[in-house]
Design brief:
The chain has 81 residues and is an all-alpha fold. It has five helices and no strands.
Length: 81
């Protein structure tokens, strides 16, 4: 799991052309905290996270990712067909 210091560092890459540097760390966080069944509806994590973090917002990456993980654990994210 990502520690708070690394979260702060990864947040600096959000909304920049260096975002691809942070994406593997974000993907690992998903893979460590979710089962394969919970991950499946999320689809391509690389694409989802690139789209989500391509623009800087007032929410931290940690907040956004924890939100996605919480929703995945609840089973409310449904895979598009």
């Amino acid at each position: 799991m990502i520690d708070n210091e690394l979260w702060d560092k990864l947040d600096m890459f959000v909304g920049t052309n260096l975002l691809s540097t942070a994406i593997p760390h974000f993907i690992n966080e998903f893979q460590e905290r979710l089962t394969p069944e919970q991950l499946a509806p999320l689809g391509d994590l690389n694409e989802m996270l690139t789209n989500t973090f391509s623009v800087k917002t007032d929410r931290s990456a940690k907040e956004v990712i924890n939100g996605y993980i919480h929703l995945a654990k609840l089973g409310v994210i449904i895979k598009k067909r």
